[in-house]
Structures are given as C-alpha cells and as structure tokens.
Amino acid sequence: MPERQLTEASWKAFAKGRSYKDAPLLKALAALLKAEKEGAQPLLDALDDVDDAAQSLLKGVKGDKELSSYVTEMGKAVEKSRTQAKNAMREDANKAKAAAKKADAEEEEEEEPALIGTKMLPLIRQVKNGGGPFPAMCVTDGKVAAVLVSRTHPPQSRRKMLMDYLGLTGGVKCHIGECMFEDKVVTFVFPTQPAGLAKKIRMALFNQIDMRVKVRVRGENPEDIDEDLTEEGKEGYASGDGDASASDDGDKSAKTAEAASAGMDRAMGEWRTARNMAVTLIQTLARDIAAAKLPQAVEGITLATTVARKLSVDPKTAAAVAELIDFVDQDPVVKDISDIEQDIRTPLKEALEGLRQALAT
Predict the structure, then answer these.
(1) What are 226-273's pLDDT values in tens digits?
(2) What is the DSSP letter of 344?
C-alpha cells in the first residue's frame, strides 16, 4: 500500500469543498496505485509523476498554506517510497546475481568430472600431435597425482576439484604450469620439477582418460628433467632387448612377468574407474545434502567425505585390497547409497576381486 498521503482517498478528503484543478494529480495517484503491482521501476516513474503533478498544482494556487503543507508531506512520502523502491530494486538485482552465480556454480560442478576426463582427452591428443601449449595443473600427495589440462588458465578452485577426485583433504602440493609437446614427448613444465612426478602424471592420464603416453616433467631450467618413457602399451615393465644368449626359460619368465604386469594394470584401471564413479556420486550426494540444509547435514557430509577418502586410489598390496573389500562390504554409507541411489558396491567389489586375483598371479 502507498503512504497515506499518496492515496486518492486521502487527497479527496483534504480537497473536499476546495476548487483545486486536481485532475492531473488524481490521475497520477490512480496510476501510482496500479504501478505498485508492476515492479520497482514502474513505481519510481509513477512517484515522479505524482511529485510533478503536486508541485504543478501548488504553483497554480498562491498563498494556500494548508495546500503547501499537504504537498510538503506528500513530497516526504514520495521520497520515502522512492527510497523503498530503490532498495527493492537493489535487492532484486542482488538476488538475480546470486541466482545466476549459483546456477553457474551448479553447472560448473556438473562439468567437473568431464574436465579431467572426456574434455581433457582431445587436448592431450592435440599435444601429442604438436599442439599447445595448454595451461596445466597437477595435485599430488607424493604417492598419487591428478592432472588437469585445459584451454584456459585454471582457477585455484580446480585444486579442490583434483583433491576431491583423489579423495584427499590436505597434505598435497599443487603445481601450475603448461603442457606441450617437446622432444617428441608430452611434457609438463612447472616452476620446479619434483623427482618422480612424471610417472605419477603418466598414471594419472591413464586413470583419467585411459590413454598411455610417455611423459616428461621439467622445471623452468631445461636441464631440470624427470622422465617416464615407459613404452606405450606396456605399464610397469621395461621393454629391454635382453641377452641374446638367454635361455628359453628366461624368455618364458620374462613373458610371464610382462603378462602379469599387464594384468595388474588392467585390474588397477578397472578399480580406479569403479572408484571414480563411486566418489563422483558420493560428492554429488554430499553437495545435495549441504544444499538441503537438513539438521543432519554436517554429519552426512562428514560420513560421505570419509568414505571417499577411504577408497584408496592405489591399493598395491593384497592386504590393502583385502581391507578395501571388507570396507566396501560392511560400510553402512556404501550400503545406503547402493540401496537408495545407485549400486556402487557391486562394481567396487568386482574391481577389487580383479585386483586380488591379479596380485595373486
């Protein structure tokens, strides 16, 4: 409702028995009542019209102190309503901006798994064909790594995305640099070159985009180089020429070792695929829980984060695999997610069984 001084009824009560030429003012007051339902900007325009009509009326009547006092109060009411309308406009603008930001964030969250998977695959292919350089980011805890290669420089928020992918909450180093094709090898250039990072990135690329590539990492000093030039298609074993005089038994042993290593790599790849699917779903559910603002939200988010962290990226021993099998089989959160949302337990257990068999070979 408009201020009392800005209603037709109030004006008519004041003007009763007086011969004011108030048709423009009455028209403006009627339009003001209608404008209140149309939004802040139409209301501001209508308030201007009322103010103009009142001032015009006052100029046409000389020496009427009562009218002058009424128009003064009307002006105060116009200014008060104008301030309220402007505040409402700012609030609406802030709400729209917040809604747009939330929508962008939700869209970005939906895209996150693809950023280090399907959307990164064509970029690495371009690099292998001599394309680039492309901005790159790598997060590692010293044991495993996750890498992002993109067309634009990644914001710092991508660090958390990579940590979430690995199921880590801290204790990591983040390297930011470029990915390019140098000396016929996919090369990552960072300000410093930590020893052993090339192998971790090579395995990260295999896990994230299912591509086997030779990798070198160097610092800004071209001589500061770490390489993992394992032959493409052969993981975890050398391709050496061997001794020409080696026995048939030695050849068979080498082939057996190669087959076992290849089997282990396949099993590890299947485990990481199942794990990544489960972690992505768990992170999505955690965001949904946070958005719902339920009383148990903090507890639910904590449990989900704990599960994601316990699903090790790189279980290399029979004991680690056995521990994971027990965890997946008994954890109530895994059970609830599998029963209510999507079955993550079955693919996790199948992948772990494959790892168990590969380790036993």
Answers:
(1) 887 765 444 433 333 344 444 445 454 544 555 556 677 778 878 888
(2) -
Alpha-carbon torsion angle 140, 142, 144, 147, nearest 10: 20
DSSP 345: H
Distance CA 312, CA 173 (A): 18
Residue 163: name the closest of 61, 274, 281, 305 by CA.
305
Mean pLDDT for the stretch of residues 17-24: 89
Q: Per-domain residue ranges for the chain?
A: 4-112, 121-228, 249-360
In this prediction, residue 139 carries a pLDDT of 92
Separation of alpha carbons 142 and 160, rounded Å: 16
d(CA 272, CA 278): 10
Sheet with 134-140: strands ordered across: 145-149, 134-140, 173-182, 185-189, 215-218, 225-228
Threshold 0.70, pTM exceeds? no
Reading phi first (left if > 0) and then psi (alpha if -120 to 50, else beta), residue 206 is in: alpha
10 Å CB burial of residue 93 (0-12, 13-18, 19+) is exposed
Q: Helix, strand or coil for residue 314?
A: coil
Q: 122 burial class (0-12, 13-18, 19+ CB within 10 angstroms)? A: exposed
CB 215 within 8 A of CB 193: no
As to burial, measured by CB atoms within 10 angstroms (0-12 exposed, 13-18 middle, 19+ buried), residue 179 is buried
Least confident of 132-136, 167-171, 184-188: 167-171
Could you tell me if 274 and 350 are in contact, meaning their C-beta atoms sit under 8 angstroms apart? yes
**Residue 243 is which amino acid?**
D
CB 224 within 8 A of CB 193: yes
Residue 2 in this model has a pLDDT that exceeds 70: no
Collapsing DSSP to helix, strand or coil, 128 comes out as helix
